[in-house]
Amino acid sequence: MGNNMKKLLSALMLSLFPFGAQADFVGFAVGAAYWNPSPSGEVSYQNYGSNDFEDDLRLEDAKENVLWAVLEHPLPMLPNVKLVRTSLGLEGDDGTLQATFGNVNSGLPGVDSSITLDQTDLMLYYEVLDNWVTLDLGIDVKLIDGTAQVSRQGKSTRESDSVTIPLLYGNAMVELPFTGFFAGLEAAMLSLEGNSVSDVTARVGYESNIGLGAMAGLRRQSFKLEDVDNVDLDLTVSGPFVAVYYHF
């Protein structure tokens, strides 16, 4: 994925410059969310078969924290910036492998497993619309620190790697005039060379006159990554979230 991803990242960054609409003033926001996603999908090791996250590994729902900060400004040609940190850790106990994973053989009960996909997202975007309806377009440079571990009775296989993937990014929001209520959809996604990543959030919320706000909604992430340090991953996590933020 390396060279092609770097070329694509450069092309996407250059494509941002034609957009010119920016915020009228400097704005800054920080927020935090609690996310409760459920996993589905499968994982495989080298040329062995696949193990289902729910049926074989018995991965449980996660309880995760998400932190973010946003900087918007009126400077022409320079993109606005959003930084998001998402922790994602999935664990399962007493599973049974349907396919061998490293040195842990299939067909035996008592397997413990964990999948970790901690993510740092750097969004660079422009405001295309800025009224009761807002629209942001840009790129999301997503850094994924991933680990897959399977163990049983002293035998364990652990694989880890970090990948950086540039995604197309968009964020649309509709405000209900003079009320503070809003609804929005945020999405980042890309598919290339058999690998694909998507990250979609639907939300409704309220922001007070002093900038303090709250929102709730659904977030869904999908990862299809092939041959990342001997591991093929096809994972979807989806679930509700609640969040609070302050807009300076």
Structural class: mainly beta
CATH topology: the name is Lipocalin
Q: Separation of termini? A: 39 Å
> Low-confidence runs (pLDDT<50, min 5 residues)?
none
CATH 2nd-level architecture:
Beta Barrel
Label the overall shape: elongated
Strands of the largest sheet, in order across it? 1-4-5-7-8-9-10-11-12-13
Describe the biggest sheet? 10 strands, antiparallel, barrel
Average pLDDT over all residues: 91
Structure notes:
There is one protein chain. With 248 residues, this protein is mainly beta. It has a single domain (2-36, 60-87, 119-148, 157-247), classed as Lipocalin (Beta Barrel), CATH 2.40.128. Helices cover 6% and strands 66% of the residues. It has 1 helix and 13 strands, in the order αβββββββββββββ. The protein has a 10-stranded antiparallel β-barrel with strand order 1-4-5-7-8-9-10-11-12-13.
Which key phrases capture this entry?
ten-stranded antiparallel barrel; Lipocalin; 248 residues; elongated; 1 helix
